[in-house]
Amino acid sequence: MVYYLQQYCKYITFARYTIMKLKLNWDAMGIATSIACAIHCALLPVLVSTLPVFGINIVHNVFFEWGMIALAFVVGFYSLYHGFIKHHRNYTPVYIFTAGFIFLVLKQFYPQFEYLFLGIAVALIISAHYYNYRLCNKSKCASPHHKH
Question: How far apart are CA 44 and CA 77, in angstroms?
């Protein structure tokens, strides 16, 4: 455990306090967000179908749905912006992410195609993050977000 922390954390001493600064991989966070969205949209209705009986509705809550979409956009935008500016200057991950995000928004307006659009959106968004991650690893830089 100590080795893991030493490899992935940076310690800063400030006024007799040691503060741990974690390195975040935004592409991995974007993939996790996309997977969480897919799990929410596909499996949650099956697993918690009894919640409406108790007056709880998180399955098709409009605010929650748009919140997840906004979270996917913020994490994806930051990850791809960082990769583009600091590492590779390649627009391909941005194009793939944009196509995925369009399908993610379309699923809100066409509920009859919700699962089809969700599957396409998740596949494209994960592909964009993975491709961005690969491009970032190919570049030689001093960023703490990627191993070289």
Answer: 26
- The residue assigned the tokens 């070289």 is 148
User: Which tens digits make up the pLDDT trace of 32-77?
Assistant: 888 887 777 777 666 666 666 666 666 677 888 898 899 889 988 9
Q: Which of 115, 78, 117, 80 is nearest to 97 (CA)?
A: 80
Res 26: pLDDT: 78
CA dihedral 23, 26, 30, 35 (to 10 degrees): -30
**Quick one: pLDDT at residue 51?**
67
Spatial CB neighbours of 96, under 8 Å, sequence gap ≥ 6: 124, 125, 127, 128, 131
Q: Where are the domains of the chain?
A: 24-138
- Tokens for 131? 């491709």
3-state helix, strand, coil in the chain (%, to 5): 70, 10, 20
d(CA 42, CA 124): 17
